[in-house]
Amino acid sequence: MLFSSLTFIFLFMTLCCLFYFISKPKIKNIILLIFSLVFYSWGEPKYVVLMLATVFVSWTSGLLIEYFDNKNKYKIKKIIFIVSIILIISGLLYFKYTNFFVENINLLFSAKITIREITLPIGISFYTFQILSYIIDLYRKKIKVQKNLLNLALYISFFPQLIAGPIVRYETIEDQLNNRKEAFDKVVAGVERFIVGLGKKVIIANNMAFIADTVFDSKMLSEYSTIVLLVGIVAYTFQIYFDFSGYSDMAIGLGKIFGFEFLENFNYPYVAQSITDFWKRWHISLTTFFREYIYIPLGGNRVKKYRWILNMLIVWLLTGFWHGASWTFIFWGLYYFVFLVIEKILLKDKIEKIPSVLRHIITLIIISIGWTLFRANSLNDFTLIIKSLFTNFNGIGFKELINSTPDIIPTIPYFIFAILFSMDIYPKLEIKYKKSLTYYAVKKLVLLLIFIFSIALLVSSMYNPFIYFRF
Fold first, then answer.
1. Is 423 exposed, middle or buried (0-12, 13-18, 19+ CB in 10 A)?
2. End residue of a domain, out of 179, 209, 243
3. How far apart are CA 268 and CA 336, in angstroms?
4. Are residues 95 and 209 in the same domain?
5. Does 462 have pLDDT greater than 80?
6. pLDDT over 90 (residue 59)
């Protein structure tokens, strides 16, 4: 079930809010847990068992880690910690990467290993990382053990962040699980944030997706001209941002409705002045996870230069591989590793001397090429696209593309919205005019129009893809 669906908006959330707000405080978490399990079961009921088993392993491991820590039996504590990490990661490795490893072993060794196709459980990458953060922080004594199994299950399975994040670390909502307070102004703010995310997803991302899919999935990819490929690349660059940040906005808004405060996951990444700056703004919860649990434990940048480079290589290989079991994702991670090494080690302070406009343009070009690699159906397609960008000036043009796919025409004006809302205009207006009654009234009206238009698009179109649905 997607947030951007009529079923979720008008059926699931209506019932969830109704039961939640009429319930006594003692059972509110149980209500949320029940609805979270229903939400997850909607698409793939059989994998609820896998998630609940993982929850039970983490709960049991947490209790044992605390018990042996109190008994000063640190070796046993460490063994339990290591075993729990292996058990938790094993599910992700099996479901997400088995097919990939078997395919490459067969290719490399001319083997003929056959296995049935393994379906990836929805949201497994996200909830696995949340469980890992809980176990690791507990082992480090940064948090207290959660003795209530239902509360831990809610933390892991809470539907707003279950499918595609943000990755919520346990310490962020440790106190909120039992001591949060719902308030009318929080509900209003949560609904408004949800509408913003819904608009990003339905109005902008879905229209950009239609263009991007038309180009990237075409059998005539090699025949497209430079301009058509550029349009497809730009469309996907906007699609992935508005798709994912829109989902994060909806998740944060939903959490706020029920009294939870999640950390921000995006901060206008396309205004970045460098690749380093971009990754401080894009998917913040993921970069924070890798920094806290991989990069810093490896030594971060407080080591010799060769080791620092190795640390970055490990982090970016894992970042690429986390996104998907494909060589395109692995090379995508290596792609950013190379540019970050260039920025941090070769250029250092020289970047600041480049004019800001030029820095911004260069950064956007690097990001867009990166998204091309991310979206390409294969490494061969990626090399074909890059080659055609610089050589195929007289291929199939945009006019021919429109003639063959006239449904693209209505999506073209949405590029204007994509450009405007990818810039940090709104927060600046908010700071400047937030005390103005006129601004307040206009804001409420715009949000209402966004909601009505989003619902109208959902009613009239079945095209509603979501990139991170199976990450």
1. exposed
2. 179
3. 19
4. no
5. no
6. yes
Domain stops at, among 157, 179, 201:
179
Number of domains in the chain: 2
- Active site (annotated) includes residue 360: no
**Does some domain include residue 415?**
yes
Dist CA 183 CA 81 (whole Å): 39
Distance CA 92, CA 113 (A): 21
**Is the distance from CB of 224 to CB of 388 less than 8 angstroms?**
yes
Domain that holds residue 52: 6-179
Over residues 365-376, mean pLDDT? 97
For residue 261, the model assigns a pLDDT of 94
Q: Which of 9, 323, 375, 451 is catalytic?
A: 323
For residues 192 and 248, membership in a common domain is answered with yes
The amino acid at residue 431 is I
- Nearest-angstrom CA–CA distance, 277 and 45: 40
Alpha carbon separation from 211 to 19, 202, 242, 446 (Å, rounded): 41, 14, 14, 26
The answer on 372 and 308 residing in a single domain is: yes
Please give the pLDDT value at position 469: 54
Q: In this predicted model, what pLDDT tens digit does every residue of 61-102 receive, in sequence order? A: 999 999 999 999 999 999 999 999 999 999 999 999 999 999
In a domain, 1, yes or no: no
What's the token pair of residue 140? Answer: 């480090």
User: Are 138 and 204 found together in one domain?
Assistant: no
Contacts of 355 (CB under 8 A, 6+ apart): none
**Tokens, residue 71:** 């008994």
pLDDT tens for each residue of 268-317: 999 999 999 999 999 999 999 999 999 999 999 999 999 999 999 999 99
CB 365 within 8 A of CB 275: no
